[in-house]
Structures are given as structure tokens and as C-alpha cells.
Amino acid sequence: MAAKIQNADNYTTEQLQKIVIESKLLISDSFEAPPIILQIDESVIGTLGNFSASTGKAKSRKTFNLTAIAAAAISNRTILKYKASLPKEKNKVIFIDTEQSKWHCKKVLERIIKLAGMPLDQNPENLIFLSLRPYSPSQRIQIIEYIIKNESNLGLVLIDGVRDLAYDINSPQEATEVITKFMQWTYTYNIHIHTVLHQNKGDNNSRGHLGTELNNKSETVFDISVNEMDKERSIVSSAYIRDRDFEPFAFFINESSLPEIDEEYENRTDGSSNKKTAWNPVEWQVEALKDLIIQVFKISENDSLKYGQLTDGIKNYSGMGMNKAKKFFEYFMANKYIIKEGTKYKMTLEKVV
Question: Are 219 and 242 in contact (CB under 8 A)?
Fold first, then answer.
């Protein structure tokens, strides 16, 4: 186990000498790679001794995504796309909620247990759920530090959400202090921490100085977004990742109120043929959309097409079904890629720059 870090504003000379000696690296030193505990396909998203985060707009189903990670971890199975492999001596998981009532927290706990395929009449031995809504940010940090320090066999800590560990999300000092705690806890106790933070309303950046620090120091940062054309789906992609990137995936909430992988979702395929199989235009890059509409209008003799010609062209060139082709038509109209003149449509590409 790594040496415990002491919190001190001023070290003595003797303490500094010891720290410098322990901190030196030599070319002859050898270290084992940190154990992998979380993966998506072949991408490493979580290792012991590091921390990661999920970010997204309000109501993007970040907590549902977090329950899938928790369920995978306590069962060492693949849930959604999360494949967990916690070692036996580090198989305990702590789930910490900072904002919901105990009634809502109980729903989240039930969801985790159901996803893990475990019975609801007993609490899993390797799962601890804490509801810290009544406490102040500084009290929450003390409570989390206490349980991390004293709980044996701990491997993963899930915190929903990190914003409630700071009084001011835009304070550079508080942001540094919170993220420093994460670095100390993960280093000292050889655990992985995954937390959740909202994104700004106007862009996809994590909120405040705390979000900036979290992005800079995290092993992996997920982006959880709602599909604009199908708000029942949430898309998980990587905003930042140290390992190889993974293919984005989508999930929806099924009739049992559990997150379920959307098997029909495909991100993008075969760029060489310029034929895309993504089922939603908002998932396409601008150049791919531009190429599609240009190819469709090549059949036009006077730069205009009827509705049927347009939808048929989208369908035939892309290889998608007619219902999807109509969605693409609606998207092109809404974003002024095409405009209607009389009974026909003309290509403008006004939105493409």
C-alpha cells in the first residue's frame, strides 16, 4: 500500500527530507501497472489509484448510468457496456448520494441490486450506500474520508455528485482542495473514485473551476447526453480518456425502470464508402451530412427536387430505411440545409461552414 499522505501547511525539515527521498524516481525503479477494474470493450476506463467522472446536462440520466457502473462492480459482470473486474481483496463498493432524499436513494439502491441480478430481500455484502443530503460540504468530505479510511477491502467509491463537496463551485481554492482529496484518497488507499458533475447550460463544459480541475486530473471523463431527436435515449461517449477511445453507446430506461443498452444504436461506420449507419442525424459529423445532401441532389437537373425524390435519395444513398430518411429530411429542413420553394426543395447548405 502507498504511504499515507499527511496534511500539513508547513512540514518540518526532517519531514521534507523524507518526502523528497520517497518522491525520487530512478531509471532503475520498476512499478507494476495499476490493476484495471473498469473497462468498456477493450478500453480501460478505471484503474485502482485513479479517479474518473461522468458529466452531462441536467436530466441526461447520469445517475442511471452510475447505477450501471455500481451494479457491474458489485457483481463483476458487464452491465450496459461497463465490464468490472474488482480483485477479491478490493471488491467492496461505496455509493454516496449527496442531494436526494432517503426515499429516492432507496430507489437508486434497488435499481443497483436489480441490475446486478441480486435478490432484493438482502443488502449485498460488498455494497455500502450513504445518503449525505443533510450535511454541509465540509462535513461530507469528513464523512467520506472517514469511511474510506476505515472500510476494509474497499475498491470503488461512487460519488453522486462532487459539486456538493464544495461551497463555491467557481472557487479555485476549493476546487484544488476537493481534487487534491481525490488524489490523496486514491493514492493512499489504492482505490478508484468515480464522481458526477453537471455541465454548463450553454455548452458542454463541466461546471466551474471544480469541473476544470476534475477534467484535468481524471483518468476518464464520460459525456452523458440526451439524443436531441429521440429524448428517450442517452448517449455515453468519452470527453477525455487516457487509454484508447471507445465507441459511444446509447441506453434507454425500460419498463422495469432500469437502464438498458440500445442494441440498434450505431455510431458511425466505414467512412471510406461515405455510407453511414448512425440512426440519428445529430450523431453525424457536418462533413458527412454535407456529403449526403450533395450526393442526393446530383440527380437534380435544375437544382431542385420533390419531397419523394429527396427522401428516396437519402434512403438509397445512405442505405437507411424510409422512416429514418424522413427524419434526416426533417433535420435538413430544420437546420436550413434545404429550403422549400413552391412544391420543390433546393439545397442551400446554409448551416455548413
Answer: yes
Which residue matches cell numbers 452510475? 66
Length of the chain: 353
Q: What is the DSSP string of 119-174?
A: -TTS--TTEEEEE-TTS-HHHHHHHHHHHHHH-TTEEEEEEE-GGGG-S-TT-HHH
Do both 57 and 181 map to the same domain? yes
In a shared domain, residues 307 and 222: no
- The continuous run of DSSP H or E covering 107 comes out as helix 102-115
The candidate with the shortest Cα–Cα distance to 280, out of 244, 232, 238, is 232
pTM of the predicted model as reported, rounded to 2 decimal places:
0.73
> Between β-strands 192-198 and 154-160, what pairing exists: parallel, antiparallel or unpaired?
parallel
Shared-domain flag, residues 281 and 331: yes
Confidence check: pLDDT of 119 > 80: yes
pLDDT in tens, 51-99: 999 999 989 999 999 999 999 999 999 999 999 999 999 999 999 999 9
Q: pLDDT digit string (tens) for 304-322?
A: 899 989 988 888 887 777 7
Of 237, 261, 285, the residue at which a domain comes to its end is 261
162 Cβ partners below 8 Å, 6+ apart?
A: 53, 178, 195, 196, 197, 210, 214
C-alpha cell at position 206: 463541466
Tell me the residue range of the domain where 332 lies.
271-347
Confidence of residue 229 (pLDDT cuts 50, 70, 90): low
Give the number of other Cβ atoms within 10 Å of residue 213's Cβ. 21
